[in-house]
Write a structure and sequence with these properties.
Helix content is 33%, strand content 21%. By secondary structure, the chain is an alpha/beta fold. α3 runs parallel beside α5, α4 crosses α5 and α6 runs parallel beside α7. The radius of gyration is 18 Å and the shape is globular. The termini are far apart. Bound molecules: iron/sulfur cluster. Iron/sulfur cluster binds next to β2.
């Protein structure tokens, strides 16, 4: 059965700084972190209604950005409304995991069933090469210290979410020469914390990694095989945008939904701060 999904781009800011991430608002790029505009939580239900009228196959409502979904309460507030009005939709959320422990119970309460946590390393020396810093309770932590705080927060968050029976997928951005030899350790750690599946995504070379070599098919295949020793591997990732709508592989209808007169889209934001 083909399952449709609607991604609701309600989360404007992020609380960590991945060196490969260049979030953006535009209509043409097809990758995570990109959205045409930002949606207000109170307008999400109207958008879901329009999308379901056009594409009744939609069974999943997801929030994946464009920033981190737990850096503000917007995602939880949105799911609270969606879960009340469309209880049959399966709610899913992607996060960097920094605040997952804090919000896991809230996510379970508002109907989130599946969770994606991006874990690019479980060794702070490696993570420091991927993430330049984090912001926690208004304070910036950089280098190894920030990486260590993030890793430990992710571990506690994944464990707590698993204890609440959420199905947890781990996303790993595969970066040749940085974390490619570290994949089995991440996979083994994730399995031990209660994750169910792994998704290995090739690096999109941009921002501080602009010009870096993206992994080829052989490198990706090897990483997936190594991860598979510990957890099943998801192989159908399509790098969806944060505002994708429709059935993956059958074209995207987001421009139809967002472009309609009286669209519930809120203000257009050209850019936003990492905090
Ligand atoms: S957590 Fe996501 S949105 Fe935040 S910097 Fe990393 S890739 Fe970008």
């Amino acid at each position: 059965m083909n399952r449709g999904r609607i991604h609701l781009p309600v989360s404007p800011v992020c609380n960590i700084r991945c060196r490969f991430c260049r979030r953006s608002f535009n209509k043409f790029e097809n990758r995570p972190g990109v959205s045409a505009k930002l949606l207000k939580p109170e307008n999400a239900a109207a958008l879901v209604k329009k999308a379901l009228e056009r594409c009744p196959e939609i069974t999943v409502a997801g929030i994946a950005g464009p920033g981190d979904t737990l850096a503000t309460r917007h995602a939880i507030d949105t799911f609270e409304i969606i879960h009340r009005e469309y209880p049959r939709l399966i709610n899913c959320l992607s996060t960097n995991g920094l605040l997952l422990e804090h919000y896991a119970a809230d996510l379970s309460r508002v109907g989130v069933k599946t969770l994606t946590v991006t874990v690019n390393a479980v060794d702070p020396v490696i993570l420091d090469r991927i993430c330049s810093g984090i912001i926690l309770e208004g304070k910036i932590y950089q280098g190894i210290e920030g990486a260590d705080i993030l890793i430990e927060a992710q571990k506690r968050g994944i464990k707590k979410a698993a204890a609440l029976d959420l199905v947890i997928k781990i996303n790993i951005v595969l970066i040749p020469g940085v974390n490619d030899k570290h994949i089995p350790v991440i996979a083994e750690t994730a399995a031990g914390l209660g994750a169910s599946i792994i998704n290995i995504i090739p690096l999109i070379p941009q921002h501080e990694f602009a010009g870096w070599e993206a992994p080829d098919c052989a490198a990706l295949g090897k990483a997936r095989e190594e991860a598979e020793r510990f957890l099943p591997v998801f192989r159908h990732c399509q790098h969806c945008r944060a505002d994708a709508i429709g059935i993956p592989g059958r074209g995207d209808i987001s421009s139809l939904i967002y472009g309609e007169e009286g669209s519930p889209y809120a203000s257009v934001e050209e850019t936003f701060s990492h905090g």
